[in-house]
Amino acid sequence: MPRQVDHEARRRHIAAAVWRLAASGGLEDATIRRVAAEAGVPARQLQYYFGTREDLLLGALELLNRDGEAEARERVAALGPEPEPRDVLRSVLLEFLPLDESRRQRHLVHMAYFVRFMTEDALRDRIRDAPPELEDLIAMLLPEGRRDEADFLLAGTTGLQGQMLLGQLSAERAIELIDRQLDRLFAPMDRPADRGL
Fold first, then answer.
1. How many separate domains does the chain show?
2. Which of 67, 74, 101, 168 is the most buried (most CB within 10 A)?
3. In the record, which residues are listed under signal peptide (predicted)?
4. Residue 54 in 3-state DSSP?
5. Which of 132, 167, 50 shows the shortest CA–CA distance to 39?
């Protein structure tokens, strides 16, 4: 009886080779030949599962993001059955910080992709018009759904990520800065009665 092939496992195995190369030397090292060697599979298998090199890079990124989203959902679920919006938002923002080895490796790979997207129009064009789902989620969790604050929080948090990866900022300080912003955004609004009016 022929052995069943787990195609998803094969795709993930190949994607993991892309991630290792990207994290250690950038996407320039992630050629079809180098990825095949890193994965220990024939180059034609990469083409079978992903197609072109561009499709391989984007497919590997999609799998990486899917893994990151699954980890993030687990951490949000650990907050309990009915967490406060502030706690959910804090958990979402902390996903952008390299607080453990899994997140650190994921962010290193994302940095390699960022550089590639800046220099390759074809790759950049394929992601430029992606729907702003993350920004929408952050805005939904904020009081009054402030989209400007959501955009600023996301940009600020990704800036902290880079500083942490470079060793310029400690995890404790990055978390403190995020908490300070959340305290500001979730502070109770002064009502006239509170001011003795």
1. 1
2. 67
3. none
4. helix
5. 50
Written as one letter, the residue type at 53 is R
CA distance 31 to 116: 13
Assign 168 to helix, strand or coil.
coil
CA–CA separation, 4 vs 171, rounded Å?
A: 45
Query: Of 123, 115, 114, which Cα lies nearest the Cα of 96?
Result: 114
CATH number, domain at 83? Answer: 1.10.357.10
Q: Is residue 197 part of a domain?
A: no
Q: pLDDT band at 197, cuts 50/70/90? A: very low
pLDDT tens readout for residues 51-96: 999 899 999 999 999 999 999 999 999 999 999 999 999 999 999 9
**What distance in Å separates the CA atoms of residue 147 and residue 126, rounded to the nearest whole number?**
24
Q: Is residue 169 part of a domain?
A: yes
Residue 23 token pair: 């994290």
The parent domain of residue 116 ranges over 7-186
CA 54 to chain centre: 19
Alpha carbons within 13 A on the beta-carbon side of 35: 30
Contact 124, 117 (CB under 8 A): yes
**Which two structure tokens, joined as six digits, stand for 49?**
């599962």
Angle at 117 between CA 17 and CA 158, to 5 degrees: 90
